[in-house]
Design goal:
This protein is α+β, with helices and mostly antiparallel strands. It has helices spanning 78-87, 159-163, 167-174, 177-182; strands at residues 17-36, 39-56, 62-70, 110-120, 123-132, 148-150. Strands 1, 2, 3, 4, 5 and 6 form a six-stranded mixed beta sheet that branches.
């Protein structure tokens, strides 16, 4: 009797199209190495997760979709562009920096997500190409997934939240200098420094 062929994990991706959704998780991944066109870059990454309000899996739970962003306030960054489209209002320069917009405010916020399917090495992946503010009168149901926020800022880090993440996600975070600095015994050399930019709140917009 032979071992069955390894086809990988067979998860059905969320349906392509535009869906009502709500964000339930924001995870600070720390500084990660990424390869692009033969060049290795080290960039601060953050992952956001949404549940689709109008699409259910076979077990009755809503589909989830996740997106990794470079944590950047640059006007051309996808992260900033998606947030501005979601808010329905552009950020101002005064919105950035300490005491400004707290990214955790997006948790629980509804939106319209546009999802496209991309096939890579025989597998279909769901990618988010657009995030928009809900149209007037639209409303999402209460969240099914637990609200989750993880920051690698020493003043905000929550070990219990970290322990509740999947093993694969924990392994990614553990590679970051920010996490390693959190776990560095006193007296050891200090790891890499990094800058964090947290885009302030305006009561006239969703978050």
């Amino acid at each position: 009797m032979y071992m069955p062929q390894n086809n990988g994990t067979d998860f059905a991706p969320p349906p392509a199209g535009t869906h009502m959704a709500a964000c339930y998780r924001v995870v600070d991944l720390g500084t990660q190495s990424t390869d692009w066109q033969g060049e290795t870059k080290r960039q601060h990454k953050v992952m956001m997760s949404w549940e689709l309000s109008d699409e259910k899996m076979e077990d009755g739970k809503p589909f989830s979709v996740h997106q990794r962003y470079t944590f950047s306030s640059h006007e051309k960054s996808t992260f900033r562009q998606h947030l501005e489209a979601w808010r329905g209002a552009p950020f101002k320069e005064s919105d950035f920096g300490p005491g400004g917009f707290d990214i955790r405010k997006v948790i629980g916020a509804p939106c319209l997500l546009t999802i496209v399917h991309n096939v890579k090495q025989g597998r279909t992946y769901a990618n988010i190409t657009g995030v928009a503010k809900l149209m007037k009168g639209m409303q999402t149901p209460p969240l099914v997934n637990a609200k989750t926020f993880l920051s690698l800022d020493p003043a905000e880090f929550d070990q219990a939240v970290f322990d509740g993440l999947s093993g694969g996600l924990r392994a990614i975070i553990e590679k970051s200098p920010e996490y390693q600095e959190l776990k560095r015994p006193r007296g050891e050399p200090v790891g890499e420094a990094h800058d964090e930019h947290n885009p302030p709140d305006d009561q006239s917009i969703p978050f």
